[in-house]
Design goal:
The protein has a single domain, classed as Superoxide dismutase, copper/zinc binding domain (Immunoglobulin-like), CATH 2.60.40.200. It is built from 2 helices and 7 strands. The chain has helices at residues 3-10, 125-128; strands at residues 14-21, 29-36, 41-48, 68-71, 114-120, 132-136, 153-161. The chain has a 7-stranded antiparallel sheet with strand order 4-6-7-1-2-3-5. A hairpin with a 7-residue loop joins strand 1 (14-21) and strand 2. The two termini are 26 Å apart.
Length: 163
């Protein structure tokens, strides 16, 4: 079986985001690819240079696993607060946090590297082009409103259509 032809016949739109680290974490880099399928979107994530896990005895601000989301705006400018220009989580249906269309699983890293593939049916690829992907310093608790208490934004990438 020719898998390339098989998968390309199921895939429609494709988008990607090149991830770059903040001034605090300049070694972070990676790629997120979004593949539209008949039933949803397959998301491929490959990132390196993430900070090592550091527990917090009070569980207030551990470093990692990393909150990971689509944010409203495709702006990865760094001002005083890294990547705040990306806005809040992508949430077109005004759901409480944990159910935002842009809420993704946390990124677990090993020696600074994270790889993950997952499926979502919360959006279509064409809906997220021009938005951004953000990696946070802390884990997302999926409960705190409005955005999960994930801490500093440490990496960002603008989502672009793959031509």
């Amino acid at each position: 079986m020719n898998y390339l032809n098989f998968f390309s016949s199921m895939i429609y739109d494709v988008a990607y985001a090149k991830i770059k680290g903040s001034r605090i974490y300049p070694s972070i880099k990676g790629l997120v690819i979004f593949y539209q399928t008949d039933d949803g979107v397959l998301v491929y994530v490959n990132v390196e240079g993430l900070p090592n896990y550091k527990s917090d005895p009070n569980n207030v601000s551990p470093i990692g696993p990393h909150g990971f989301h689509i944010h409203e705006f495709g702006n990865c400018s760094e001002d005083a607060d890294s990547f705040m220009t990306a806005g809040g989580h992508y949430n077109p249906t005004n759901q409480p946090h944990g159910n935002h269309a842009g809420d993704f699983p946390v990124l677990f890293s090993n020696d600074g590297k994270a790889f993950m593939v997952f499926y979502t049916n919360k959006f279509k690829v064409r809906d997220i082009i021009g938005k951004s992907v953000i990696i946070h310093e802390n884990p997302d608790d999926y409960r705190s409103q409005p955005a999960g208490n994930s801490g500093k934004r440490i990496a960002c990438g603008v989502i672009k259509k793959f031509i």
